[in-house]
Write a structure and sequence with these properties.
Layout lengths: L1 H31 L5 H7 L2 E7 L6 H17 L4 E6 L10 H6 L5 E5 L23 H15 L7 E8 L4 E4 L6 H4 L3 E3 L2 H9 L3 E3 L3 H10 L4 E4 L3 H4 L8 E4 L7 E7 H6 L2 H17 L4 H16 L3 E4 L2 H24 L4 H18 L2
Helix pairs in contact: 3-11, 5-14, 13-14
Length: 362
């Protein structure tokens, strides 16, 4: 009997506790939805910017640059500017990203200027063969500082946030290339400007996307590739080539991160300043060395695990190669002069900056 009475008392207590818990939950939910917190109010009014690029979601350009950069911008603007990345060409194709930013299809874009050759005539000077870049730091500093000095009209239709580079590309081949004679008639995978470069050197450029090069090398359809050394590991080209000839004067590719001009102008001066400061930090601390880090990993894989052999050309041999590609720079100057630009001034800017930063980043 007493047990029954005790059970009813406990039951009444349980019901009261349940009612109190329900009331507390209601009050808590009401407080959360009130929007009274200043920080939450700013997040509710945040500007979300869509960023388009072509790299896969696992690439260092996304994981080490874009994502941390976007997070830092969100923090620097107190949550008022949110950047959403769309990797892997999910928003725009690689060759349509710059125009997509101009037209507002994407708010921000990351891609290569060279994907729309002819659209950026002044910037082609930074990719011409004949200028030596010791590494991606040198190439990135030269490009970004040079663009600021030249301030070409071709990039005035967006807000350029930063420019960074692959830096030098090298020859990796199935047979040793110690001299120009070894290169004559050799089938080398290359596209665009690189194909013109190899043709000037007497090689036989074979156009194909990077994704087809492994099979072509493994079957002997081509005997080598001219590219950044990251592909030795990333695309496993160290499995199908045996020699790496250093050619830091043949190759460079410029990447950009840029924002739609109207979208940029719609941001407050405070947020603009915050974005510029974060971008400057990430350019210096991440972007300029992004390809150097990949190269370091790839070379360790190629040399230590796959037994590739490194070939360094003599100074005399380098001069022979550079002399053969110099007409490409002369042709650039001539064409730029015909278009009303100061062609020689542009080339001199590139070369003087390259000399400066090659000494700084040996």
């Amino acid at each position: 009997m007493s047990c029954a009475r005790g059970g009813s008392v406990f039951s009444r207590v349980d019901k009261r506790v349940s009612v109190l818990l329900v009331l507390l939950m209601i009050f808590a939910l009401a407080g959360c939805s009130s929007g009274s917190s200043p920080g939450q109010a700013k997040k509710q009014g945040a500007v979300e910017l869509n960023l388009a690029h072509f790299f896969p979601a696992t690439h260092p350009a996304e994981t080490e640059l874009i994502q941390p950069w976007a997070k830092a911008i969100s923090e620097a603007t107190d949550g008022q500017v949110i950047i959403k990345s769309n990797p892997g060409e999910t928003l725009l194709k690689a060759d349509g990203i710059y125009e997509g930013v101009v037209n507002g299809v994407a708010d921000i874009g990351l891609s290569c200027f060279s994907y729309t050759r002819g659209r950026f005539p002044v910037l082609e000077a930074f990719e011409l063969p004949g200028t030596t870049y010791n590494n991606s730091k040198v190439a990135s500093k030269v490009a970004w500082e040079g663009i600021k000095q030249l301030n070409p009209q071709e990039i005035q239709d967006t807000k350029l946030m930063m420019v960074f580079c692959t830096g030098p590309g090298d020859l990796f081949t199935k047979i040793p290339v110690n001299s120009l004679e070894d290169l004559q008639g050799l089938g080398i995978r290359a596209t665009g400007l690189s194909a013109d470069t190899l043709k000037a050197l007497g090689a036989n450029p074979v156009p194909m996307p990077q994704s087809d090069a492994y099979e072509a090398l493994s079957k002997g359809v081509v005997k080598g590739n001219l590219s950044t050394v990251e592909v030795l590991k990333g695309w496993k080209h160290a499995e199908v080539t045996q020699y790496l000839t250093r050619t830091p004067f043949l190759y460079n590719t410029l990447f950009f991160i840029t924002m739609n001009l109207d979208k940029w102008n719609s941001l407050s001066p405070e947020n603009q300043k915050a974005i510029e400061e974060v971008s400057k930090e990430y350019f210096e601390e991440v972007a300029i060395s992004l390809w150097d880090k990949q190269a370091e990993t790839a070379l360790k894989y190629a040399f230590d695990e796959k037994g590739m052999k490194e070939i360094k050309l003599s100074d005399q041999e380098i001069s022979r190669w550079v002399n053969l590609v110099k007409p490409m720079q002369d042709d650039f100057v001539k064409k730029m002069n015909e278009k009303g630009y100061q062609g020689q001034q542009i080339m001199d800017t590139v070369k003087s900056l390259a000399d400066k930063y090659n000494k700084e980043y040996e």
